[in-house]
Amino acid sequence: MTTWRLTLRLLRRDWRSGELSVLAAALVLTVAAITAVGFFTDRVEATLHRQGSELIAADLVLESARPLAETFAARAQAQGLRIAQTLEFRSVVQGERPQLVLMKAVDAAYPLRGQLRIRSALDASDQAVAAGPPVGEVWVESRLLRLLNIRIGESLNIGATRLRIGAILSAEPDQSRAFFNIAPRVLMNRADLDATGLIGPVSRVTQRLLIAGAVSEIDTYRAWASTQLNAALTLTAARDARPEFSAALERASRFLHLATLVTLLVAGAAIALASQRLVERQTDTVAVMRCLGAPRHLVLRVLIGRLVLFGLAASLLGCLVGWLGQAGLFAALDDWIGVELPPASPAPLLVGLATGLIALLGFAVPPLLQLAQVTPLRALRRDLGTPRLSAALTLSAAGAALALLILWQAHDLELGLKLLGGVLATLLALIGSVLLLVQFAGRLTGRVRGVWRLGLAALTRRSATAVLQISGFGIGILALLLLAVVRVDLLEAWRETVPEGAPNYFLTTIQPADVAPLQAFLSEAGIAAPLLYPMITARLTQIGDRAVEPSAYPNPRAARLASREFNLSYGAEPQADNRIVAGTWWSEGAEAAPQFSVERGIAETLGMQLGETLTFSVAGRTVTGPITSLREVRWDSFNVNFFVVASPALLQQEAASYITSLYLPAAREGVIAELNRRFPSVATLDVEALIDQVRAVIERGVMAVEYVFLFTLAAGLLVMYAGLQASLEQRRREHGILRTLGAGRRTLLTSLAVEFTAVGVLAGLLASVFAEATGWLLATQLFELDFQLNPALWLIGVLGSGVVIGLAGTVATYPLLIHPPLRELRGG
Amino acid sequence: MSDQAATAVSRASGLSKHVTGPAGRLTILAGLELAIHAGEAVAILGASGSGKSTLLGLLAGLDDPSAGEVWLCGQRVDQLDEDGRAALRAGRVGFVFQNFQLLPTLTARENVLLPLELTGTPDADRRADAALERVGLSTRMGHYPRQLSGGEQQRVAIARAYAPHPAVLFADEPTGNLDQTTGEHIIDLLLEQRHSSGAALVLVTHDPRLAERCDRRLQMRDGRLEPLQ
């Protein structure tokens, strides 16, 4: 009872007196950043997934080569989800000559997400429509008109029926699923399908059930459907739609979590510094309480109870600030985001609260334990000071809290461990460097005179505080410099992954005979000759000595990849934007022995190891070779890329078609129409819309990261303020003594300026070194982006922090010089 | 143990305190003997550094002696651990310090309440109010230490010291930070409270006028106490 009454009373009074203000600000900032990012990523990811949905025309797609069981549709409808069904099959239509086409029959509900785009004539512009063709009508790809030499309005023989060509089909939302399809596409109404007589029990038909609805219902449905999958049935969610899209989403998520972690670290430093000051300020209070008969366990209970209550209150406030922050941002960006966002879930609030308490306990409990050790004799003898803090205890508590939070927030054990290692190494290196520099300053003290001596001596006299202070400043400046590195350099490099002029057209199914004429055509049209890559369809049959069985993979994505046909390529050199991450590329070029290079992601998904043998079936022939390298591919570069590339010896004798990508400005779209006319078998795919979507992800991601960095900026400034406050109590008494001894205000002011400028320069120097090193590591190891040294950063880091901390420190401690020295000496 | 020694609220026997510094071992107290009885006011005088405050700290159980016995309210203090000594002090010992040592974040009333709450006194609020009334600060109860003058702060400290009705009150230079007139008022108040509470008072002071008004005056010299006439 006594404990609670005392705890509440002291907490109320400390809160009101501003004693806890720096600690509270640090905690509120930490929790606000974590909560805001939690809400923000939840909602942005949901929005981005929604955009991913436009690439598959639904939120979820179930695909089967056999008729889908009724239960799938029935269950979706029972859950209040919208459904559409499509059937896709190859057929031959009759015009001047027979032509293979890819037919797609859609019902009235198709598409559930995104839009169909059609043209009323070859030279007309696109218009968006909400549904597929009406009964009795088909929409066809423009090249079919040229191949069959027919016009819009004429009829097309499809199986046993004739259907009128109503429009040219320009784009389907789920078009990219048929990326490498050689046959022109024909879209028809499902109601006309029976009349065609094309679908029989043995027909090869791909049936799709498209599903869309509320996020939570989709999640529930997906969880259920995942348990029903088999080798013939696959499930695709919006996120898996395109690797280009998920790569951008992945990076956005990494940037956001990184920004949060930086805020967490910086705010952690502010919490540690503020706790140190709290200990200084509360030493007398604890000494008096002990004098008056409070046993140590009671003092400790009161201190910890106060800390926990304070932590809860500040964390709740932080949650509120975080929630308001993201709500404000979303309100401001409502039009820009353009879709109705799902409401925020309460999960980020709990994460925020837990983070606040863990950070506070980790960083502030050791100083409080120190406080509980204060001897009651200190009430009589102020010269006794505060008990020394155990370095091992402080480091292990802070380290444990950091480790817990980083591993938790990184959402990925490997990334978390890397980050943790990096952070701990940085902190240890920072503290070690500070210790060396303070020692160096100590040696310098004996060689200089006057205010210089006074200023530098202040650093070494309070070496523990100086180390804490310079490390705190260093972390603050490091955060600010990192903002510059990440915000300007890394985010710009991210934007550059899809630069202006990124390929916006893919040309596929180029026959070998068309290669030279096509290159000549493009050259005539003034388009730089793009590289054409051979492409061979193959089925993966064995990895090492294991036969590939899709049903053996519990992961649905792995099962889907294992069941589908691979598009293999071969080449003497790796593509320019590929990076070899394991093994080596064949150096003998075209003469190299049979071998494969595999994209790292798919190797991990399918469990392929470097050195293992892959066996493919290519048009009935078996092709075998070892994996000699793993590559990292920038899917969001929009260059042509392949999961598996072979050495030329392995595949060059196989029949191949070719693929390439090129950039055409909007004004030159006529080139594509002419290309379609001259090369009717070449399929062209306009990926401008996909590029726009990936760019939108990047832009929104950049904005979200910048927003989160506002919290980091505030935490950086706060840690510097906490650093300034950290030594005030010790200084108060020292200045009283110095002034009593006759030191003039000007002398003291100059010595303060010397001390703080030295602190600023030292912290700035260390921060610049660490900012560049961290930036380099992040760019190359985490984000796979290019990095360049930034000389301006050094200038700003060293000079800027010298001037700013020199000035701020002097101004902050100036009030100590105004009051009469007796007051400081008496401890009033 | 004599009867007189047995009735002592505070007693030291063969009390020694040594510290080791850069110049070697320094003896502050050397086998000191002292007994303070209920209701008695004792002044301890001595030059700076003679060990007055060290003695006060040892008598109050704030520090460990190097040798000897310390008794407080009938219990051996030197055989207790720090928490045991704290439990012994709670409610039985009051303190008045030269620097007042009020908690800056608590009001005058809350400062006085503090020792009462630590001992779980049931009518703590009423007793705190009465204590502040006795020192003439009933109108300043809601003020924070920084809003009070030095004399007023010391009056709050006196109210805090006497509020739990202690058996003994230790005062370390209670007028050291005050001007002469305020100092005299504080002396009046301390002695008046001593009379009304019946608590023993142990005063460490430089001030001969304050010492004059005590029942006994002891001079600290070479680590021992000598009576002054």
Which helices and strands, and how do they pair?
The complex is a heterodimer of chains A (828) and B (229).
Chain A: H1 2-17, H2 21-53, E1 60-64, H3 70-78, E2 82-94, E3 98-106, E4 116-119, E5 127-129, E6 137-140, H4 142-148, E7 155-158, E8 161-171, E9 185-189, H5 193-196, E10 206-212, H6 215-226, E11 233-237, H7 243-291, H8 296-332, H9 334-337, H10 347-372, H11 391-410, H12 413-445, H13 450-461, H14 463-495, E12 505-510, H15 512-524, E13 533-543, E14 546-547, H16 556-563, E15 566-570, E16 578-583, E17 596-599, H17 600-606, E18 613-618, E19 621-633, E20 644-646, H18 648-651, E21 657-662, H19 670-678, E22 683-686, H20 688-726, H21 728-740, H22 745-782, H23 791-813, H24 815-818, H25 821-825
Parallel strand pairs in A: 3-9, 6-8, 15-20, 17-19
Antiparallel strand pairs in A: 1-10, 1-11, 2-3, 2-7, 2-10, 4-5, 4-8, 6-9, 7-8, 12-21, 12-22, 13-14, 13-15, 13-18, 13-21, 16-19, 17-20, 18-19
Chain B: H1 3-6, E1 8-21, E2 24-37, E3 41-45, H2 52-59, E4 67-72, E5 75-76, H3 82-89, E6 93-96, H4 108-118, H5 124-134, H6 150-162, E7 168-172, H7 180-197, E8 200-204, H8 208-212, E9 216-221, E10 224-227
Parallel strand pairs in B: 3-8, 3-9, 6-7, 7-8
Antiparallel strand pairs in B: 1-2, 1-4, 4-5, 9-10
Helix pairs in contact in B: 4-5, 4-6, 5-6, 6-7
Domain ABC transporter (chain B): 10-228
InterPro entries (chain B): AAA+_ATPase, ABC_transporter-like_ATP-bd, ABC_transporter-like_CS, ABC_transpr_LolD-like, MacB-like_ATP-bd, P-loop_NTPase
Protein name (chain B): Putative ABC transport system ATP-binding protein
Describe this structure in words.
The complex is a heterodimer of chains A (828) and B (229). By secondary structure, chain A is of the alpha+beta class. Chain A has 3 domains: 26-49 and 246-497 and 694-825, no CATH class; 56-241, no CATH class; 505-686, no CATH class. In chain A, 55% of the residues lie in helices and 16% in strands. In chain A, the strands form 2 sheets. Chain A has a 6-stranded mixed barrel. A 6-stranded mixed beta barrel of chain A has the order 13-15-20-17-19-18. Chain A is elongated, with a radius of gyration of 34 Å. The two termini of chain A are 32 Å apart. Chain B is an alpha/beta fold and 229 residues long. Chain B contains 8 helices and 10 strands. In chain B, strands 6-7-8-3-9-10 form a 6-stranded mixed β-sheet. Chain B has a 4-stranded antiparallel β-sheet with strand order 2-1-4-5. In chain B, helix 4 (108-118) packs parallel to helix 6 (150-162). The longest helix of chain B is centred in the C-terminal third of the chain and has 18 residues, at 180-197. Chain B starts with a helix and ends with a strand. The model of chain B is unreliable at 1-5 (pLDDT under 50). Classes of the chains: A alpha+beta (828), B alpha/beta (229). The interface between A and B is large, with 35 and 36 residues.
